[in-house]
Amino acid sequence: MERSTFVYVTYIRTTPEKLWSALTDVESIKQYWFGVHCESRWTSGAAWKLVSGDGRIMDSGEIVAAEPPRRLVIRWQNQNKPDLKAEGVSQCTMEIEPSGTAVKLSITHTIERDPSKFIEAVSGGWPKVVSNLKSLLETGSIALQDPYPAETAACAQQ
């Protein structure tokens, strides 16, 4: 079967423990993920969901593997957009490795179909979310206030 994959790698000046905490703490997630947050017990087999600021479930699934502070794997399905939900379940793997004074964060998001509108969507979202995460951990503030700048939102509405 065909597969679509998105890979994003960055280096963050932090520790694996602080990065793990930022990836799994509700209040931290809200700061860098544009008001969205994740709910889970963060253990293998636990339910997982991504919840919007107004309480809508955007995505849901389960934790496939949780190995703090080095690896997190989430089975992930969109719940918000029918065409993305219809594509089925994806898998997101986050790997954390020490790298000198920084930490290497590798995110690999895959789905068993090609082409995939879902992977196209996450390939636009992950860089913004991770940029905010990196900025928050390194400077204490986020880089981007809005996932969809005003000019982009205006074009999308036309």
Taken in chain order, the helices and strands follow as EHHEEEEHEEHH
Low-confidence stretches: 151-158
What is the oligomer described by this structure?
Answer: single chain
**Count of DSSP-assigned helices:** 5
Distance between the termini: 36 Å
Strand order of the main beta sheet, please?
A: 1-7-6-5-4-3-2
Quote the beta fraction.
35-45%
Report Rg. 15 Å
- Compute the average pLDDT: 92
Q: Describe the main β-sheet briefly.
A: 7 strands, antiparallel
- How many beta-strand runs? 7
Question: Could you say which overall geometry the principal axes of the C-alpha atoms support?
Answer: globular
In helices, the fraction of residues equals 25-40%
Helix and strand content put the structural class at: alpha+beta
Brief digest:
By secondary structure, this protein is an alpha+beta fold. It is built from five helices and seven strands.
Can you give a write-up of this model?
The chain has helices spanning 16-24, 26-32, 82-85, 117-139, 150-157, and strands at 4-12, 37-40, 47-51, 57-67, 71-78, 90-99, 102-111. With 158 residues, it is α+β, with helices and mostly antiparallel strands. The protein has a 7-stranded antiparallel β-sheet with strand order 1-7-6-5-4-3-2. β3 (47-51) and β4 (57-67) form a beta hairpin. The longest helix is centred in the C-terminal third of the chain and has 23 residues, at 117-139. It is globular, with a radius of gyration of 15 Å. The model is unreliable at 151-158 (pLDDT under 50).
